[in-house]
Amino acid sequence: MKNITIQKENHTTIILINRPEVKNAVDGQTAQELADAFRAYEEDDDSYVAILGGLGDTFCAGADLKAVASGNGSNKTEPTGDGPMGPSRMLLSKPVIAAISGYAVAGGLELALWCDLRVMEKSAIMGVFCRRWGVPLIDGGTIRLPRLIGMSRAMDLILTGRPVKSEEALQIGLANRVVADGAALNVAKKLAEQLSAFPQRCMRNDRMSTYEQWNLPLETALTNEFRKGIETINSKETVIGATRFASGKGRHGNFEDI
After folding, report:
1. At what angle do helices 107-114 and 141-149 cross, to 10 degrees?
2. What is the mean pLDDT of residues 17-37?
3. Measured by CB atoms within 10 angstroms of the end CB, which terminus of the chain is less buried, N or C?
4. Residue 24, class by beta-carbon neighbours within 10 Å (0-12 exposed, 13-18 middle, 19+ buried)?
């Protein structure tokens, strides 16, 4: 991989964009590397959670507009296959956490929205900065943003392109955690360790039901949820967990000793 780095720590795969000289903007090659890296994560049975971030002081400044202007940007012209930013059309079976420092704007915002959780540093900024240049949201931004923060707030950000600081991002549900500058990656790692410690089939089935319900009528969604729940129960994860609880683990809401 030329434009990204991949590191494995225990059950966590850490994928970082490595183009700090252009604020981790994504050109065609980088998009391909990101897509390939997340496909490899999906297929790695020993990797439970992935983290997406950027080296240097920026998460991702979006598409590399200089590459676009020179013809070296993404050549994706069909609504199938990988997205222009890489993994944005994928629905993985396992969680991804965004570790956001500096700017997560334009296509970088769309990559952050694609992740399940967003850990944002205090001085970081999100926004649809591509509004200024006639560059469309084409990696799920117009879908995921209103689903995360509601139609009215999403329209404000999409139409104006204004910057969103960490305090507001947390308030409106755009960020899940706000941490000190320089701490996003380490906090994301700790969060990944927490998720990795849970019974994996149950967590993944609940996660997938949450994603799939968007496209289903209520009755069908409830049936889908029940089917996935029964799959978890039949795997014996539930009885194993109940047995641990009966033995005295996790009492009084304790998440440390489970």
Report:
1. 60
2. 96
3. C
4. buried
